[in-house]
Design goal:
This protein has about 190 residues and is α+β, with helices and mostly antiparallel strands. It folds into 2 domains: about 5-140, no CATH class; about 145-185, no CATH class. The protein is built from 6 helices and 10 strands, in the order E-H-E-H-E-E-E-E-E-E-H-H-E-E-H-H. Strands 2, 3, 4, 5, 6 and 7 form a 6-stranded mixed β-sheet that branches. The chain is elongated and about 80 Å long. This is DUF177 domain-containing protein. Pfam families: YceD. It comes from Alkalibacterium iburiense.
């Protein structure tokens, strides 16, 4: 599948948009860019590139893939499906159109040479849409959270219910020596 074009090549699509459809393998480059990515299946891409007579290129794509990422709790591999749309606007090097003419919510980029290469924008979109928390099926079903000596993970709900007051006897023993520095504060106890 082709994802890089010379701008002169795209000029012939001013009357009718260029239809894009196919699969491409980004596995190696995504794993190089993000150490958390264990594997990535080939990426399905569909969409259009619309070309304006003023050298403005409107790209609208639908991207779908499956990634293997480490669980946020156990680091076990977890398969994660991704399917999302994104659109960006590219201005040709000599386009008279200014970036300020577009809505502030639109992603607009001026090209630095006479090519439109979608590899990096597609990779960026895949990594940006990667979930921040990933859990195995067992972790989702289980109420048990990781714990260790003198620590445990709490859900937000349990954290808000917890009462984290401590008595002076339970204080950090390394701080006990500091009590002698302020004898006036100890008289009130």
């Amino acid at each position: 599948m082709k994802i890089k074009w010379a701008l002169n090549e795209l000029k012939k699509y001013q009357d009718e948009p260029l239809q894009i459809s196919g699969t491409i393998d980004f596995s190696r480059s995504l794993k190089e860019r993000d150490a958390d990515v264990i594997s990535v299946e080939p990426v399905d891409i569909t969409g259009v590139i619309e070309v304006d007579k003023t050298s403005v290129y409107y790209v609208t794509l639908r991207v779908s893939t499956k990634m293997t990422l480490p669980s946020t709790r156990s680091l076990e591999p977890v398969n994660v499906s991704q399917s999302f749309s994104f659109s960006e606007v590219y201005l040709g090097v000599h386009s008279p159109v200014d970036e300020s003419e577009f809505d502030k919510n639109e992603i607009v980029e001026r090209l630095s040479d006479e090519t439109l290469d979608l590899r990096k924008p597609i990779e960026d979109a895949i990594l940006t849409n990667k979930p921040t928390q990933v859990f195995t099926e067992e972790e989702l079903k289980s109420e048990k959270l990781p714990s260790g000596k003198n620590w445990k993970v709490l859900t937000e709900e349990k954290y808000s219910e917890a009462n984290f007051t401590s008595s002076e006897e339970e204080g950090d023993p390394r701080m006990a020596i500091l009590k002698d520095l302020f004898p006036d504060n100890n008289k009130n106890d």
